[in-house]
Amino acid sequence: MLKYLGILSLVLLFFISCQSTRQEALIPIENFFSTPEKSHFQVAPNGKYIAYLEKSERGQNIFLKDLSNEKLSKQLTTFEDQKVSSFYWGSNEELIFSIDDIQTHTVQLYVVDVKTASVRNILPTTKGKMRWISPSKINDRSIIVALNERDSTFFDVYKISLTGKPKEMIIRNPGNMIQWYTAGSGDIHLAWTSDSIEESLLYRPHVNAPFKEVERNDFTESIVPLGYVKSSTTLIYALSNINRDKYALVEYNVAEGKEVRKLYEHPQVDLEASGYSVQLQEMLYSAYITDKEEKLFFNAKVEKLYAAIADELEGFQFKVIDRDSALTKIVIRTYTDVNPGAIYYYDVADRELHKLADNYPKLQNYKLATMEPIAYQSRDGQTIHGYLTFPVSGARKNLPVIVMPHDGPHRRDVWGFQPNVQFLANRGYAVFQMNYRGSVGYGKMFWSAGFKQWGGKIQEDILDGVDWLVASGVADKHKIGIFGEGFGGYAALFAACFQSSKFKCAASISGYTNLFTYFRDVPPFFKPYLQKFYQVIGNPTTESDLFKAISPVFHADKVSIPVFLVQGGKDRYNSVTDANLFVQKIQQNKVPVTYLLMDDEGKRFKNDAHIIQSYQELENFLKVNLGNK
Amino acid sequence: MKISKYTYRKNIGLLTAFVALVTILFVVAVFFAKSLFVRYIENEFSNRKSEIFDQSLEPFNNLFHNKIPEISFYQGYLDSLEGERYAHNILLSFPFVKKVVFYDMLFTNDQNLQYGFSINNLLIHPKNLFIYRLKNGKLTVERLQRGTRIAEYSEELNNMGVRIASYIDKVNPGTKLSDADIFKLFYAVNPGKISYLNIPRMSDLQQYNEVMTGKIGHIASYEQDMFAFEIDPTLIEIKNSYPNLYQKIEIKPVISTTKINLQNYLVTEVALPGALSDYKIELLSSREFIQHETNQQFLPVVLGISMIYLILLIIVYLIYRNLDINGRLFKLQYDFINNLTHEFKTPVSVIKIAGNNIGSAKKLSEEDQQMYGRILDQEADKLNNLMNKLLSFTQIENKAIKLNLESINLPEFCTPIFIASKLKYTDMELSYDIHVQQDLKADPVLLNSVFQNLIDNAYKYSMAGSKELRITIQQNKRFFVIKFIDRGIGIQRNEYLNIFKKFYRIKSQYNQQGSIGLGLAFCKEITEYMGGEITVSSEVNVGTTFKLVFPVDK
User: Fold this and answer.
1) Nearest-CA residue of chain A relative to B222?
2) Which residues have C-beta within 8 Å of that of residue A233, sequence separation ≥ 6?
3) pLDDT digit string, tens, across residues A292-322
4) Above 50 in pLDDT, residue A344?
5) Where in the numbering of this chain does the Histidine kinase domain appear (chain B) (predicted)?
6) Which CATH number does A371-626 carry?
7) pLDDT of B506
8) Which of B391, B408, B406, B407 is nearest to B522 (CA)?
């Protein structure tokens, strides 16, 4: 779960720039939903270069910024129709990058030389997907990656030679391994499996020994390896919530399968899976998110360095993206709730921030809406944390409100810049986000309280939040809409079926219309794996009544408020047939429906034009039904 | 009297021609309307069937487009319990579904299961087979497991297997399911039978492809559901929303062996679609039935046309009557001019004779001179009178004179008139009786005229010896009532209204000369002009009473 959160934070949080004169105008929709031109900033181990990806018309290439001499900066790859998907510094001289083709489901790996910009292929076009294994280190001129070529449903570990030798499978996945961890030596001693309702940690003392299970947990309990303790092959830093409610930082002996000691635990929230330095092989800090993210430092030098950076930033939050081995160049991205921020690198030598790129440059000159942490009590006494974003106008009472439950449910909303929230706030709506029970980050009690509560207690938490907003005078109770993506969309559609008295309209992007369909995405050959979903959602065969009761598609005839539905044609969690029938049935009752089908999109839309079109239609839909500007 | 060539013309021929034309039009209109209606009803008969078709097939379409696709909602997770609930619901709501067969299946690469439809590594294995029927309103469930009887249901399975497998074979990561694909793949529609396979997600189809091609090394089994519905089209309830058009509507096999003699029947039919295609809807009505319906619809139209015809005839009659009245009026005016000429002629010839006599007499004695003077004066007065009458009458008729209303003290007003009349008509016995309290508001000059006229009339239309006139003037709260009662020749009852008409004169010996038929018309005009009313009552040879009524002015 923490992995998701990490990715989510990266996607959602953005950067600063000047606090110049801000406009409070209606911001064009494109300004909110354009993916950045430059991304993936990575500093070379020796701190001399920063490499990044930049988009061209149909391609995406690696560019190199020479930090000592700007004139020597150059473009490293020149693909016109292909996109470099990811890369990392193999050494100070070489970058290794991958090209994933989403259309044909193939992957290729290349090496590019920093000096000569010569590109050579090390993995010819291979069917399937590739995953980097972290930390990916070059050992005897080869790297280790995971590929699902043999069976699309799981990955095997391969050694890819940089010299052109064919790839070699080094770990054959029995079908349940999902993660591997390389030690300082570059060998894999540790693997993580999730073959079922249970997760386990596997260990082997050397590469020729078989993996042995050292820890096995119910899926509600978990241990998340972060990295090896310096020069050890048996001790690791890990986050663990075994025998405790919240993830704590522990030192763990993988050879014995025992927790050695607890290093830190926060009383209210889980720790984040960050703060380990691969280069230094030590924990620099632990991060945790209460209302906003905070850090506890273990390394005094790093703490001073971070404090120095924070001084430069005047109130902005920041995240470290990358750093060189000597900690002389730190790439960060800054953000606040009202500013998408920018990407900088901090040079320890001159103690200054150097801007690399603005995020959402077209939003820099506009005033954005502030996001305030809030908390309320649910009907059964749970404290629910959330965020409330007020429209830029400054009005705080009797507002039209968009209730926006997050996707998941096993995720959480965090404080920071969120383009869709800012878009709605700019259009004059207050945006209400809440971490309903079942959200992660608040410990496993709170998380598991959401089990089998789809449409149940989870939905109640959302409604309790709405009541709280109305009671506190923030919301105009005749102008409340509910909108969300994925699970949030499901909650909106569920509300349209059963709670139409509370909401004026409901909007869903990739919302789950049918839980039977949603369940189909659980691979059926992992029979035991289903157990987890049986516990979390329910069993579609034995509890088909429950599934029927909580699947919106069965209750289209009860919908009496206008519905907005955007559906990707390749969404694995939803079928177009369900969405079509759902919409048809609502229309038969003469209830207005706005329905957009994006044939080539999956659950998360990739094409900016499609995202913009969806939000444009959403804006119109809300304008008509909530009567705002 | 001389016959004038400008006599009034009544062209009866024209009217007769018109009546004839209208009558012909009437007959033609009725005839055309009738044939139009016959055709209309026949058209309706063959056109309205599509509505009957739509309405009757509504439940079937609902089953096909709404209820059957609901199977896909379960994404293969239907079990015996939920499947039974679904089938029961279908059987209850759609009586034309005779039987529901539920294939609870696995798409698997587990070849140990052996039984099923197999292609490459993909085995389509029916785990369970349930047959649902309604017997006397109660659901019966038959569960078939491997055995002999399952064979009769395996054809359905194999057909579906061939279809889906050849599609799965072609699936690649970019494949999209079009609506046409959905219909081709997941529905199988045969006469009397619909089968439907739950529509899996595209990613499932890709998984099946991998299972089929052997790319998945381990055992993988996916739940899939298929339903087959056996349909008896004859149980579809027909909704005859046009009972006036169709006597009988039936669902019949397309190839029907029993042919009844349909000569006296109007028949039309609609072919049924898809699973019902071996049946048709046959709609028939007997010729008499249609005839009756045609008449029913035709009747109001005939009535309408007749009404118009009648109105035209009435108009013709009115025109005829108008012409007749105008003719009479023309004659009256013609008579009037004749009379008037005569009337003017007498004094003029008297004056002329007097003039001649005066001119030719050598010497005029004083007596003669006085006589001629008197004669000339009298005749001039007559002429003057005549002209005044004519003039004032046209003025009054055109409301050209102004009323000069004054308060009239009736006794004071009447006395000089009566005295003058006694002097004028010495041979008439005139008595009067006046009882009034208030003054009458009227124009004294005009009122005087009325009195004079009525007194003159009384004198004129009484036989010598019985010339008597009694005048009574009385007043009650609201009216002054003035009566002129004579003992003259009287007026026949049917002439009461006519005597007040202009130029109307009752033909009688008393009427030879000195009357132009304006007097009473004049009185009536004036009286009404002043706000009063004049009526007459009379008895022939007994006497006549004219009654003037004026409102009391308050």
Assistant:
1) A524
2) A183, A184, A185, A189, A205
3) 999 999 999 999 999 999 988 888 889 888 8
4) yes
5) 339-554
6) 3.40.50.1820
7) 66
8) B391
Whose tokens are 């038929």? That residue is B517
Mean of per-residue pLDDT scores for chain A: 87
Q: Does B317 contact A at CB distance below 8 Å?
A: no
Measured CA to CA in angstroms, residue B342 lies from A428, B3, B339, B488 at distances of 106, 17, 5, 25
Cα-Cα-Cα-Cα dihedral sign, residues B118, B124, B127, B130: negative
The full set of domain ranges for chain B reads 56-235, 238-291, 402-551
CATH topology of domain A46-173: Neuraminidase (2.120.10)
- Chain B residues close to A104, C-beta within 8 Å: 173
Pairing of strands B440-442, B406-408: antiparallel
C-alpha B422/C-alpha B428 separation (Å) is 7
CB distance from B176 to chain A under 8 Å? Answer: yes
pTM of the entire predicted model:
0.71
Asked if A412 contacts A331 with a C-beta cutoff of 8 angstroms, the reply is: no
Q: Where are the beta strands (DSSP E) in A352-470?
A: 352-358, 371-377, 383-389, 399-403, 430-435
> What is the predicted pLDDT for the residue at A412?
93
CA dist., res. A92 & res. A114, Å (int): 8
Task: Give 3-state DSSP helix, strand, coil % of chain B, rounded to 5.
Answer: 50, 20, 30
Mark yes or no for CB contact B75/A569 under 8 Å: no
Q: Which residue of A has its CA nearest to B183?
A: A577
Q: A 235-294 residues with CB below 8 A of B?
A: none
Chain B touched by A152 (CB under 8 Å):
yes
Q: Note the pLDDT of residue B369.
A: 84
pLDDT given at position A337? 87
Per-residue pLDDT at A287: 94
Output the pLDDT for position A6.
46
Closest Cα to residue A371, out of A408, A414, A322? A414
Listed in order, strand segments (DSSP E) in A290-370 are: 293-297, 317-323, 329-335, 342-347, 352-358
- Strand-pair partners of B129: B103, B144
Which residue is closest to A575 within chain B, CA to CA? B201
Stated length of chain A: 629
Provide the pLDDT for residue B6. 57
Does the structure show a pLDDT above 90 at B385? no
B210 in contact with A at a CB cutoff of 8 Å? yes
Shortest CA gap A181–chain B (Å): 26
The residues of chain A that CATH labels 2.120.10.30 are 46-173
The angle, 0 to 180 degrees and rounded to 10, between the axes of the packed helices B12-47 and B287-360 is 160
In chain A, the N- to C-terminal Cα span, in Å, equals 39
Domain limits, CATH 3.40.50.1820, in chain A: 371-626
Q: Residue A611 has which token pair? A: 């995202």
Residue A10: the pLDDT is 43
Place of tokens 């790093």: A302
Domain B402-551 has CATH 3.30.565.10: yes
3-state secondary structure of B421: helix
Question: Do B88 and B132 form a contact (C-beta atoms < 8 A)?
Answer: yes
pLDDT (tens digit, 9 = 90+) per residue, A222-270?
888 998 998 888 899 999 999 999 999 999 999 888 999 999 999 999 9
Q: What is the mean pLDDT of residues A461-486?
A: 94
Is it the case that residue A16 has pLDDT exceeding 90? Answer: no
Q: Is A353 helix (H, G, I), strand (E, B) or coil?
A: strand
Q: How far is CA A192 from CA A172, A214, A226, B430, in A?
A: 14, 10, 12, 148
Residue-level pLDDT at A408: 81
Q: Please tell me which of the candidates A514, A524, A570 has its beta carbon nearest to residue B202.
A: A570
Helix (H, G, I), strand (E, B) or coil at A504: coil
Q: Measured between CB atoms, does B201 come within 8 Å of chain A?
A: yes
Structure tokens at A174: 């029995």
Would an 8 Å CB–CB cutoff place A499 in contact with chain B?
no
Q: Which residue has the tokens 């099946």?
A: B208
Average pLDDT over residues A593-611: 89
